[in-house]
Each structure stands twice: as structure tokens, then as C-alpha cells.
Write a structure and sequence with these properties.
Layout (H helix, E strand, L loop, with lengths): L1 H13 L12 H10 L6 H11 L13 H10 L6 E7 L5 E6 L5 E9 L2 E5 L3 E3 L14 E4 L2 H16 L5 E6 L9 H12 L11 E5 L3 H10 L4 E5 L5 H7 L8 H15 L3 E7 L7 H10 L5 E7 L13 H13 L4 E3 L13 H6 L1 H4 L1
Parallel strand pairs: 4-7, 7-8, 8-9, 9-10, 10-11, 11-12
Antiparallel strand pairs: 1-2, 2-3, 3-4, 5-6
Helix pairs in contact: 2-3, 5-6, 7-9, 10-11
Function: Specifically methylates position 2 of adenine 2503 in 23S rRNA and position 2 of adenine 37 in tRNAs.
Keywords: 4Fe-4S, Cytoplasm, Disulfide bond, Iron, Iron-sulfur, Metal-binding, Methyltransferase, rRNA processing, S-adenosyl-L-methionine, Transferase, tRNA processing
Family: Belongs to the radical SAM superfamily. RlmN family.
Length: 365
């Protein structure tokens, strides 16, 4: 049985789509492709209109394109169609999707509803290699990177669901399964496509990228000089605790990470967010709050405290509410900009990777 599962996994790993996704192409790339294939470059904007405004489900629907061009597109590309395996809806309106990819692997995407609009949390990898000890996403390790079009398609699929309610996606966070900076080029193409006014037209300041702290990529991202919001999963005030929670800290120490953070702020002029999950008895004491305040002293930042979701495969417990408020109060006393993340989707498989771990056990062993 085990040998059969390993053979199936190997087949998945080696299976590539017959044709690339058209969602992977930036507008300029599509223009170049069209001119190289004897078509006028302005057709690219028409195609983008069909993809991102009209949200066409097939090339055949693109009625203002010639039959020859529609056939040409059909011959060379696919509209990446994610198969919806499961769609959960929470009492607070949060929606969680488990999508199947062309090779049978699965990914999660979450729609969160806020007073200020609809936010989509997207996945960048099938699994994750970072190995954070509190996260369900890393169960089973990394299977593969997503191509840009597979990330774009997640937003399109959620938008299609919202079309039925006459609503739109107003913001995007790259905080789903995987480490975005581990799939840097595809992530940057995704950002360009969803931000473009001919694409999904989501403003840069309504997009947030989060990383576990791959330092060389932080410097690279800083040099991009985008207006996109930037967050770092910190989760600890010192190297000892962070290495326990996040093995990546053994390669990229906290002191070096903070130097990269300062470079980013100096280069972009933008504030950075630190995600800090509170784990009962591990990193949630007043002494940890004091140490955290000292770590970020003088840094232009905001700290987002996260009451962690329980993950059955992991061995951490939630911090009691009174201790969360005490932690927040300690930071505020030290002049730190801090908020507690509002919990959403608590009555469904809300933790990142949890739905996939439950439903697709062969992927997460």
C-alpha cells in the first residue's frame, strides 16, 4: 500500500500541464506573444478584459476575437481551471476552498469578510519546506511550486463566487500554504497581474505579502520598491524560542533578520508588520512581551497578535484571553503599535493547511 502511494506521488510530481496557463502571462508578455504569432498587440487588452473583467470560462466566449485567434489561444494555453473539492462557509461569512490542481494535488484558498471589504488569502506552493512546528501547511513537506497562473486563478475563482452576490475582491493576502519568497518569480508575476488596471485592478496597498524570513529575498523585495504591504512571521522575541517554533531561524538568525527589516524600511519608507502567534506557555508571557518590545524598538512597525488555531497534528495550546490582553497591554505601555487579529472561520477548518491535512492525508503524511 505504501509503495503504491509513493508511486502515485512520484507520478504527480512529474506530471506537467500540457499547455501553460494564460493567467500566468503579464500583459506585456501576452502582447509580445501575440505579435510573435502574427496578431496585433492591442488584442492582449481584449483578452485581459475577457479574463479579468468578464471572467470568461473559455476562449470560445471571447466573441470580439477572431475565430483564428481564439483557436490559436486554445492551441497554446489553458484557462487554469481549479476544481473545487470542498467549499466551507463559516457563521461569520468566511469561506474556505479546497481546490484540486491539474496533477491531482490540492491547495487551500480563503475568503475573509471584513467591514472594509472582501479579502482573499492565496496559496503559493503545494505544501511547504520551511517546517514551522505549529503549522499544518508543512505536513508532508513541499510537493511543488505553483505557477503564477495557478495563484491568479485562486483569486479569479473566489471572484466568480462573489459575482453571484454582486461583490468584489477588494484585497489579497499571500499568507496561504507555502513560503511566498520560496516561489519568488511566480509570486512577483502574480502581483503584477492582479495589480494591473487591465487585470484584477487590486491596488498595491490592498495587497500584503508575508514571509517566514528568507533574508536574501527580503533585500531583493526591498529593491523592487513596490507599494505592497509587507509582513514577517516573527512569533518569538529571541533566537532560542524562534528556532524552536521556526527552524528557518537556524539559517537566518533574528539579528540578521532585523537588519534586513531595517534595510527594507529605509529603502521603501514603508512600515512593516510582524505576525506574532501566541502559543500557551511558550512565547506569551509578560517577559516575552518586554523582550519583543526591546527587539522592535525604533523600528517602523506594527505587531499583529494572533490567537493560534488548534491544529490536531501539532502540540500547542491557545493562550487564554486574559493573557492575550496582558501581552497587548505590555507592548502598548512600551509604545509599540499593536493589535489583536480578529478571529474568523473558527467554526470551520480555519488554520492554514488544516482542511488539506484532513481531506488529503496522502499529501500530508
Amino acid at each position: 500500500m505504501k509503495q503504491q502511494e509513493e508511486q502515485t506521488a512520484e507520478k504527480k510530481k512529474n506530471k506537467s500541464p500540457e499547455k501553460p496557463s494564460i493567467y500566468s502571462l503579464k500583459l506585456e508578455e501576452l502582447k509580445k506573444w501575440l505579435t510573435a504569432n502574427g496578431e496585433k498587440s492591442f488584442r492582449a487588452e481584449q483578452v485581459f478584459d475577457w479574463l479579468y473583467v468578464k471572467r470568461a470560462a473559455s476562449f470560445e466566449e471571447m466573441s470580439n476575437l477572431s475565430k483564428n485567434l481564439r483557436d490559436l489561444l486554445q492551441e497554446h494555453f489553458v484557462l487554469t481551471t481549479l476544481k473545487t473539492l470542498i467549499q466551507q462557509t463559516s457563521a461569520d461569512g468566511t469561506m474556505k476552498f479546497l481546490f484540486e490542481l491539474h496533477d491531482g494535488y490540492s491547495i487551500e484558498t480563503v475568503l475573509m469578510r471584513h467591514e472594509y471589504g472582501n479579502s482573499v488569502c492565496v496559496t503559493t506552493q503545494v505544501g511547504c519546506r520551511i517546517g514551522c512546528t505549529f503549522c499544518a501547511s508543512t505536513l508532508g513537506g513541499l510537493k511543488r511550486n505553483l505557477e503564477a497562473g495557478e495563484i491568479v486563478a485562486q483569486v479569479v475563482k473566489v471572484q466568480q463566487a462573489l459575482d453571484e452576490l454582486d461583490e468584489r475582491v477588494s484585497s489579497v493576502v499571500i499568507m496561504g500554504i507555502g513560503e511566498p519568497f520560496d516561489n519568488y518569480d511566480a509570486m512577483m508575476s502574480f502581483l503584477t497581474i492582479i495589480n494591473h488596471d487591465k487585470g484584477l485592478n487590486i491596488g498595491a496597498r490592498h495587497i500584503t505579502v508575508s514571509t517566514s524570513g528568507i533574508i536574501p529575498k527580503i533585500y531583493k523585495f526591498a529593491d523592487e520598491k513596490t507599494q505592497i504591504n509587507f509582513a514577517i512571521s516573527l512569533h518569538a522575541p529571541n533566537n532560542e524560542i524562534r528556532s524552536r517554533l521556526m527552524p528557518i531561524n537556524k539559517a537566518y538568525k533574528l539579528t540578521d533578520l532585523m537588519e534586513a527589516v531595517k534595510y527594507y524600511i529605509e529603502k521603501t519608507g514603508r512600515r512593516i508588520s510582524f505576525e506574532y502567534g501566541l502559543f500557551g506557555g511558550v512565547n506569551d508571557g509578560v517577559e516575552h512581551a518586554e523582550e519583543l518590545a526591546e527587539l522592535v524598538k525604533g523600528v517602523k512597525c506594527h505587531i499583529n497578535l494572533i490567537p493560534v488555531n488548534y491544529v490536531p497534528e501539532r502540540d500547542y495550546v491557545r493562550t487564554p484571553k486574559e493573557k492575550i490582553f496582558e501581552f497587548e497591554k505590555t507592548l502598548k505601555k512600551r509604545g509599540v503599535n499593536v493589535t489583536i487579529r480578529r478571529e474568523q472561520g473558527h467554526d470551520i477548518d480555519a488554520a492554514c493547511g488544516q482542511l488539506r491535512a484532513k481531506e488529503r492525508k496522502e499529501e500530508t503524511r
